[in-house]
Design a protein that fits this description.
The complex is a heterodimer of chains A (352) and B (616). With 352 residues, chain A is α/β, with parallel strands linked by helices. Chain A is 68% helix and 8% strand. Chain A has 2 domains: 4-43 and 170-351, no CATH class; 49-153, D-Maltodextrin-Binding Protein, domain 2, CATH 3.40.190. Chain A has a 4-stranded mixed β-sheet, sandwiched between helices. In chain A, a hairpin with a 2-residue loop joins strand 3 and strand 4 (114-122). The longest helix of chain B is centred in the last third of the chain and has 29 residues, at 477-505. The chains are: A alpha/beta (352), B mainly alpha (616). Chains A and B meet through helix 2, helix 4, strand 4, helix 6 and helix 7 of A and helix 2, helix 4, helix 5, strand 5 and helix 7 of B. Strand 4 (114-122) of chain A pairs parallel with strand 5 (142-149) of chain B, so a sheet runs across the interface. Chain B: It comes from Halogeometricum limi. Chain B: This is ABC-type transport system permease protein.
């Protein structure tokens, strides 16, 4: 006869596929990933309008520092300076955007050895951000040029800024957010599945029937845990395959899958513990989701946290400690699992 | 058995009290202790992390070979994303190499990303170094004062029915250029302050009258009062931090994440009734299923309102904010209730809840980004919250347009769920789509019910069509109009025929062509009547958008040219004909239904295209 743990795990997985839950899970993950990409790509292109390049910011410039401002504006791609004789005409041009196309006003005055610039930008959500980002770029160029003129009075010279490059802002996001998201969502879902699988048997009273069969409570918990734990690394592997087909190279796929497996064991064991000690499924789910939300959110502050570790493994910027970190997570995962087993031994199965 | 209203209220109150007592009972000392442990653990993790230096998801993702003597070394060491390696390292093991007066980057994406990061790091480092300088004038030679000016509201405050063709073409043009200039600003009646109010000629930086002046930093608070644009401030160029444009995202999460916990518990308690026939005891008591559902929902609704009020106070919102978020909460509860009635297991319920939550979050969040750009934003009640927080007024018409569909959806969802709150449905295991058909059938017992269900489907149809408009809004008009017309036809035909199909499948009516035609006609009539209510869209000027015209025009909404009685009745004829087609198919079984449904959609799309091209 086959190992009862395998039988239970197989039954769990088949119930997932029968209810089409697994399809819903994958679709949801895809949706969350697409949604966050949409958001971040939108955000990033806003904060870095040079990327989209199609949007020109037309700036009305006036005041006695006009020449310096125009010179700085010409340095920045996507900014089109228009010189006006005085502030009043510039402002009135700004207030008739449909006719003049002016998006912002810069009025520069030289006084007391400084340049005082007053900027006016339109107050309208998305456009404001684009305009402000571009203006900042212009003003930083101006600041650098003015500093250069006054460098005799400075003790330290500013370090030369390295050359600008056309790097995709999406690149960093893919590795620091998207890949970790796709790796850890399955882990949280597996934990939630463990809670549901165990508390459902309890609430329906079917755990009693299962215990009449020649299996121990430990084997039941093991079987359910097995099904949930293996799902997460399998999904992580699937997402990474899809990402590499899409042109995103994952540097250390094996280490990432091992890490996801270790965390999956850790989270699912904790979930099983919560399900066994809580009186009811509602309480268990609540404790589990609060715990995961806070503890996992908290770890992002710590060096070598799971998110950062996956990001560094995937992007290929690891050092000698990487293998050690992955091993450490595996040890913690196994430790929690061992603790769970001893807890199951102590639980009075008939009281459940 | 007819009972008075007070009897009903008494029963509802008793069940609500019982529900609260039972839920409180499950939170025993042990659970509380565990929650405390989880919180302490999280606090401990977070505080050790905070000591270690804050959130940095991108810590050390780019490796840079650099010697400690290099002028760039300090800048690199201070950037979390850059990992300084000794210059002796193999060049293949680093993404950037900083030598004496040169920087080596290869052509890989990673290398370029690392270089961009180095560029940012050096700028930050320079600003930091300048802060230590004695000579402030030389270190910060440029002083900027930034002012956010309202150039006339882009959404006119009142009803826009009086707006001429000029205004509607202006709106269509805006969608291409991303501009928000508006033609209506000359009237001076727009909501915001006039542009000149805070501007003194010649000198914008030294007048000390601006209330929110902060000389140290120019950072616009991302969420201080949600309206990040209210203030004016002064500082060096490096201090400018662009406003976060997605205040609505933060709002969506601030309001919806706490809701998730309430809804999770609510779904659990509803599904609990269905496990081991527990709910049967309550069903045999002399109370109606409606009372049971109302009583069990009441505590959770109260919790939701309480949470919403707390969040609203925290972000600085008023009564309007709470009133705008309430319908979202109601739909959330309603959808979860239906989910709990359909789900076969806790696992299925968990994922139905997550799916509902994800959908609601995106539906409320995405349109609200465009709060100041287009009236489409008003399909999300969160837009009302954004406007409430930024001090812009919300008219009654806008409020009804925004929240009305949500309220109606919630009512219909609860009606749908309550329909299957009976023994034969609660304690059987069927797949979700079949349960859905059962739930529809539960409301159809006489032919005229068919018309009523069609009418009740209107809020969902409306929401689906608005969502389609919002999604297609960004694409060019030539492409979106046909796609939109097809989607509209699909949604409307489904709404008109699904319950007819369900009723036939359940053997509710004789499967004859005559019955089918009668049911189809009734369904079309009900839908036609309900559709007239979508005229509320006119209040906010949605029909002036090209897409709005495409979606709503064929039903006769907002189109003045339909003066002849024959044309007025054209939509009625359409709905009756197409509903008849699909009903005849539905009477013959599933395959025929699928086929006739496609025919009906094709007829509907053709009609829509004709109407739009004739009008256009």
């Amino acid at each position: 006869m086959a190992d009862p743990r395998l039988t239970i795990a197989k039954r769990e997985l088949s119930s997932l596929s029968r209810e089409k839950t697994i399809v819903l899970i994958l679709v949801l993950q895809l949706f969350v990933a697409a949604f966050s990409s949409f958001l971040v790509v939108g955000l990033v292109s806003l904060y870095d309008p040079g990327q989209t390049a199609s949007y020109e910011v037309d700036v009305a410039i006036a005041g006695d520092a006009t020449d310096e401002l125009v010179a700085a504006a010409n340095e920045v791609t996507g900014v089109d300076p228009h010189v006006y004789p005085d502030e009043a005409t510039a402002t009135s041009a700004f207030e008739r955007p449909t006719q003049t196309g002016i998006d912002a006003v810069l009025v520069g005055e030289s006084r007391d050895g400084r340049v005082y610039v007053s900027a006016a930008v339109p107050d309208s959500n998305v456009q404001t951000t684009v305009v402000v980002v571009q203006l900042r770029e212009v003003l930083q160029h101006l600041e650098r040029a003015e500093r250069e003129d006054r460098s005799a009075w400075l003790e330290t010279r500013p370090v030369d800024v390295p050359p600008e490059t056309s790097s995709s802002p999406y690149y960093g996001f893919t590795y620091t957010v998207l890949v970790p998201l796709l790796c850890f969502l399955p882990v949280f879902i597996s934990g939630s599945l463990t809670v549901d699988a165990l508390s459902e048997e309890r609430e329906r009273g079917t755990l009693e029937l299962l215990r009449v069969a020649p299996v121990s409570l430990r084997e039941i918990v093991d079987g359910k845990l097995l099904a949930a734990v293996v799902l997460a690394p399998a999904q992580a592997a699937l997402w990474m395959t899809l990402l590499s087909l899409d042109g995103t190279r994952i540097a250390n796929p094996v280490s990432v899958v091992v890490l996801v497996g270790a965390l999956s064991l850790l989270v699912c064991s904790l979930a099983a513990t919560v399900a066994l000690v809580s009186p009811e499924r509602r309480t268990a789910q609540f404790l589990y989701s609060v715990g995961v939300l806070f503890v996992f959110g908290g770890t992002t502050l710590v060096p070598n946290n799971p998110v950062n570790t996956v990001a560094r493994l995937a992007i290929g910027s690891t050092d000698a400690t990487a293998a050690f970190v992955v091993a450490a997570y595996a040890v913690v995962g196994v430790g929690v699992y061992v603790a769970l087993r001893s807890l199951v031994g102590d639980v009075d199965a008939n009281a459940l | 058995m007819s009972r008075s209203l007070s009897d009903h209220l008494r029963v509802v109150r008793r069940i609500a009290r019982w529900e609260v007592g039972r839920s409180a009972g499950t939170i025993d000392r042990r659970t509380a202790a565990f929650a405390l442990v989880a919180l302490l653990l999280a606090g401990g993790v977070a505080s050790t992390g905070a000591l270690a230096g804050g959130v940095a998801l991108d810590r050390d993702i780019y490796r840079v070979g650099v010697s400690p003597e290099s002028p760039y070394y300090d800048a690199i060491a201070s950037s979390p994303a850059l990992d300084a390696r000794p210059p002796t390292v193999d060049r293949a093991d680093v993404d950037l190499y900083v030598g004496d007066g040169y920087i080596v980057a290869d052509d890989s994406q990673k290398s370029r990303a690392a270089l961009a990061e180095l560029n940012d790091a050096v700028r930050r480092y320079n600003t930091g170094a300048m802060l230590a300088e004695e000579n402030r004038t030389a270190a910060f030679p440029v002083v900027v004062s930034l002012e956010y000016v309202q150039r006339g509201a882009s959404i006119p405050a009142g009803a826009t029915t009086g707006a001429s063709a000029e205004s509607s073409s202006g709106t269509a043009g805006e969608s291409e250029s991303g501009r928000t200039g508006s033609a209506g600003s000359d009237d001076g009646d727009a909501a915001g302050p006039t542009p000149d109010s805070s501007r003194s000629a010649g000198d914008g930086s030294d007048d000390g009258d601006a209330a929110d002046r902060d000389d140290d930093s120019l950072s616009v608070p991302t969420l201080g009062g949600i309206n990040p644009f209210g203030s004016e401030s002064t500082g060096s160029p490096a201090d400018i931090s662009p406003p976060f444009p997605f205040a609505s995202l933060v709002l969506a999460f601030a309001f919806l994440v706490p809701m998730n916990f309430v809804v999770q518990a609510y779904g659990g308690t509803m599904l609990n009734e269905r496990i081991n026939r527990r709910g049967e005891l309550l069903l045999v008591a002399p109370v109606s299923p409606g009372d049971i559902v109302a009583g069990k929902t009441l505590p959770y609704l109260t919790a939701l309102v309480g949470l919403t009020a707390v969040v609203a106070v925290a972000v600085g919102g008023g009564v309007v904010s709470v009133a705008a978020v309430l319908p979202i909460g109601l739909v959330f509860l309603g959808a979860t209730f239906v989910g709990a009635m359909f789900a076969r297991s806790f696992k299925e319920l968990t994922f139905l809840t997550v799916a509902i939550s994800v959908f609601l979050t995106s539906y409320t969040f995405v349109p609200a980004i465009f709060t100041q750009v287009t009236p489409i934003a008003l399909i999300s009640p969160l837009t009302l919250v954004v406007r409430d927080l930024s001090g812009a007024g919300v008219s009654l018409g806008e409020f009804l347009f925004s929240t009305g569909p949500f309220f109606l959806c919630a009512v219909v969802l609860f009606a749908l769920g309550s329909g299957v709150y009976r023994e034969e449905d609660m304690f059987t295991q069927r797949s979700v789509p079949l349960k859905f058909l059962d739930a529809l059938d539960a409301h159809v017992s006489r032919p005229r019910d068919v018309a009523l269900v069609s009418l009740l489907s209107i809020p969902f149809v409306f929401v689906a069509e608005l969502l389609a408009i919002a999604v297609l809004f960004v694409l060019p008009v030539e492409l979106t109009v046909p796609v939109l017309l097809l989607l509209v036809a699909l949604v409307e035909e489904a709404a008109k025929s699904l319950h007819v199909f369900a009723a036939f499948e359940k053997g509710r009516f004789a499967r004859t062509t005559r019955t089918a035609l009668l049911l189809g006609a009734l369904s079309g009539l009900g839908f036609f009547v309900g559709e007239k209510f979508t005229a509320v869209a006119q209040v906010v000027g949605l029909p002036e958008l090209t897409l709005g015209q495409a979606a709503l025009g064929p039903s006769g909404v907002g189109i003045g040219v339909f003066s002849a009685a024959g044309l007025l009745l054209a939509p009625l004829a359409l709905h009756v004909v197409t509903a008849g087609i699909s009903a005849v198919g539905a009477a013959r079984g599933r395959r025929w239904y699928a086929l006739s449904f496609l025919v009906a959609v094709a007829v509907h799309t053709a009609y829509n295209l004709t109407v739009v091209s004739v009008l256009g």
